[in-house]
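Cont'd.
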Amino acid sequence: MKRRDFISKGLGAAALAGAALSIPFNNKLFGNPFSPLPPFPSSPLLPYDLVAIKGGEPEEMFDMAIKALGGMTNFVQKGQTVVVKPNIGWDVTPERAANTNPKLVKRVVEHCMQAGAKQVYVFDNTCDKWDRCYANSGIEKAVKDAGGTMVPGHAESYYQTVDIPQGKKLKKAKVHELVLQSDVFINIPVLKHHSGAKLTIAMKNLMGVVWDRMYWHRNDLQQCIADYATFEKKPTLNIIDAYRVMMKNGPRGVSEADVSLMKSQIVSADMVAADAAAAKIFGQEPEDIGHIALADEMGVGVMSLDKLNIHRVIL
Amino acid sequence: MMRNHWLKKLRVILSLFFFVVISALFLDFTEKAVKSVLHAVVHFQFIPSILQFIATLAPLAMGFVIIILLTLLFGRVYCSTLCPLGTLQDIFHFMNRKLAPRRKGFKFKKPMNWLRYGITGLVILSLLTGSILMLNILDPFSAFGKISHNMFRPLFILGNNIAAKTLNSHGHYFLLPEQWISVNKAALALALAWTLLLVILAVTRGRLYCNTVCPVGTVLGILSRASLYRISLDQSVCNSCGKCSAVCKAECIDPKKQELDFSRCVGCMNCLSPCPDGGVHFVFAWNMKKTGMESPDFSKRKFLKETGLALTGSVIAGPVALAQNNGKKEVIKASVPVIREHPVTPPGSLGQARFNSLCTACHLCVSACPTHVLQPSYFSYGLNGFLQPRMDYITSFCNFECTLCGDVCPTGAILPLKRVDKQLIQLGKAHFVKENCIVYTDHTDCGACSEHCPTKAVDMVPYLGRLRIPEVTENICIGCGACEYACPTDPKSIYVEGNPVHLQADKPEEEALEGEIDYQEDFPF
């Protein structure tokens, strides 16, 4: 180990230990030690606000989309830790489209590794039993094959309380520690019908990085989804899987008859824009989806797609 | 010091094998053990196997016949190899001997016949009156299960979670924490009391428990009076030195009279090697007289009478118990009261009365249940169903794809089901209580119940403005409890009312989506 490495690592460890020690005191007396957090390094000026692509396989569409945005190196620097958040909520097979397509997750992890990521962590706070979801979604294997690490999200001990100062209904949330600690946060939702929130896309997918989802349901679901989207640790990149799309009976689905093969993908650093575009693909107006309209109002992102610089690709 | 006899070595190896495998079934939380072929060992537990045979009449449920044959051949080898509770006592005794090595050896004691036949008689009597409660407490496998699940497993998980937390915080994820489920206090109390009893008896009197309390020990003891191979003292060489008696955990060798009470012998084979004159043998009984050994008495009428009574008792008890149902109402604290008339029994149990009559509360299904929805009850089923598992929808909900409880149940109280069949068995029906629902009280979106529903029996239908409110389609509801678990209100706005007898649900209709997709069409933005 070089001396400089030793010093920097030592300092890092000391800082971590200090933070860990200070948690019990800080939480009650001085507010949360993780807030305010250093925001993710702001992305370099991207050539497009949003890339919409369709007609191909998940992997090739992502290859083209990320190339159009300047490559993964625009988002992931060498030696950084990355946390990837697909939707792995349900114990169903990939054909049911209740979870993010494992092929897409695999390709995203591969791009992160190629960009020089030190570690790529993947997790979800699932609805069905977590280990069954991880295995039967095909995502566990995909991530391992790509060199990433599946991490658990099923124990409260992984979650740390943060403040959401701009939240209207959701003022605090317990967020998975890896989201708070990682350098890069990549959100890979799957576009689906949703019986509660109407649609589940990028912002709704972030419900899977928090512990107490019941609170959201109890306290104005749509507002809470928008509130959490104001939290400063926003996704660096949102990749919406609309290859197979569950058109009804969401978010779990009942059978493959609920699924339409749309072969589409949306990639954007702006969650609201990504959700608006995905809603349009689904056949809904963004302003009709409560949390999209609310997040737009709260300034999280831009819902009006005509104001954006969009790159459209049809394969 | 003589080397141990090979039969004793075999006994130790077999007993440890079964003990480790059965313990693994109760401790493992990764589904690996219960999904492996290893779980077949539970079919060779005496009482569960008899119950399973009554429940299914399946030829594969005849493990108890093999145990009876083994006993008729070799005596109570079951007690020293297959029975995990027996091995647990041996482990207590072994540990005590290591910790306090100067302890004196065992001495011959007279059998406590009034206790052993009394307890077994009571078990049979209570079965005849339709109560499985005594078997629930006294069946050695179920007692071991309750101890393993309610005492050892929480300790195991605690240790795992501490280790996992340390490892995870250093970026290693090969060990993961397991969800902590609060232990059923009654089950824990019973497990603690039983462990204390076993420790005291094992340390002071070896296998006294097996020769007084355990009904399986008593029944097999009666059968072993007719065993073909048995331990015998060679009176032509015996000088009553008592070395064999000192290692006899069953306290059944009387060196003075040069006799051995084989009905109490648990077949541990400890006595074979200590005899300085080689006078203790495990031999074919018909040869005994010729060699001047103590001869067995095959002619006792008691044998037939008691065997017959024990077996018919078990056979009659099942159907009789079917008629019994002491269900109690479960009250969820409520402002708009939510009262469950019938507790929900696991899929494969077919209904409450049948389940209550066959389950001995070994808690193997509770250990195996990946979502932890199966939890020991207190008195949801009444006193006779004490600690029998129920579907606890506050703790979790039943995984749609899972059939593990039926796969592992050793008594047939929960029958194995194919996945497709399980997905159509209706355990109960979801009931919607509009007055408690967020959409009704707060006019905000929720839909948590509908979200989790695997059949969309709970769907969201138009309400005020853009709001949608739950609606239940009962015929496709399977009563899995996902809606009740997910419901964020207290009291719940949706809950599952158990079906006393499970029903068949309809398969949800599959409507094909309309319209073709043109992949060359422009984006809608």
